[in-house]
Amino acid sequence: MTTLDFPLDDARRLVDIALDEDLGPDALDVTSTSTIPADQAATGHVVAREAGVLAGAPVIALVLEGVATRTGGIPPSLEVRIADGTRLVPGDVIAVLDGPAQQVLMAERTLLNVMSRLSGVATHTRRWADALEGTGCTVLDTRKTTPALRALEKYAVRAGGGTNKRMGLFDVAMVKDNHVLAAGGVGAAYTAIRARYPDITVEVEVETTEQALEALEAGSRFLMCDNMSTDLLRATVAAARAWAGERGEGVEIEATGGLTLDVAAEYGATGIDYMSVGALTHSSPIIDLALDLA
């Protein structure tokens, strides 16, 4: 089973917080401990209730371990049958848990909450990746993530066939209109970043072909075309690539702003390299997963 570079430390932190929320300071499930003998065994199946793309299966083991640690119990055995990134159909058995029934039920909601969320992101991303297939354009995520879930949500994007852009404000410089205004121009903003961080990637946001050429003259080789029509975007791509080609250089071009699945292929065919979509992480509905006792 591929892990797609699963962010294990981030997942552990999330599971700790989630279990603290669900089990409280005394690690209690008052219903299960009252109605189920401590030595009663159970088999639980984590199943898909709807079609989608799986993400987050490694979380199951972390939740089981976390519950056992908190309660002093024995964690159920675990068999994960489906790898992250796999397309699901209703009824697919993702994993099988065997062990103390109390432990299984204490873990149920936490593992389902995380996996349903991540699988929703992966499923949404897969729709964009499928829509762009054959265009040469790759779908990117953004920083519009759920606080404290960024590493996991970006992992889910990868599981769905997308690509991560920047992880935060620290790894890519993105010059937007406020930076241009504060610095006194595109050239001044680019020069200031390059002087302080000579090895960092610098992307410049543009809204017109003229601004794109200005950014190239300033030194940027990564353009983010914001809220352009397909005609304007196609013209900007052609002008930018011609400018760079005359100098024997390359340029990467990204489109963003107001994009929907209905027009993804049309925009992807304009010659852009990337399409960034904040909705991958801020507006993906969950995928319905369940844990059924056999």
Automatic annotation (TrEMBL):
Catalytic activity: nicotinate beta-D-ribonucleotide + CO2 + diphosphate = quinolinate + 5-phospho-alpha-D-ribose 1-diphosphate + 2 H(+)
InterPro entries according to UniProt: Aldolase_TIM, NadC, NadC/ModD, Nicotinate_pribotase-like_C, Quinolinate_PRibosylTase_N_sf, Quinolinate_PRibosylTrfase_C, Quinolinate_PRibosylTrfase_N
EC number: 2.4.2.19
Pfam families, sorted: QRPTase_C, QRPTase_N
Domain Quinolinate phosphoribosyl transferase N-terminal: from-to ranges: 29-119
Pathway: Cofactor biosynthesis; NAD(+) biosynthesis; nicotinate D-ribonucleotide from quinolinate: step 1/1
Keyword Glycosyltransferase on entry: yes
Any one of the GO CC terms: cytoplasm
Glycosyltransferase keyword on record: yes
GO molecular function, one term: nicotinate-nucleotide diphosphorylase (carboxylating) activity
CDD domains assigned to the protein according to its UniProt record, in alphabetical order: QPRTase
Keyword annotations of the record: Glycosyltransferase, Pyridine nucleotide biosynthesis, Transferase
Domain Quinolinate phosphoribosyl transferase C-terminal: 121-292
Gene Ontology biological-process annotations: NAD+ biosynthetic process; quinolinate catabolic process
Family listed: Belongs to the NadC/ModD family.
PANTHER family cross-referenced by the UniProt entry: NICOTINATE-NUCLEOTIDE PYROPHOSPHORYLASE [CARBOXYLATING]
Function: Involved in the catabolism of quinolinic acid (QA).
Protein name, as recorded: Nicotinate-nucleotide pyrophosphorylase [carboxylating]
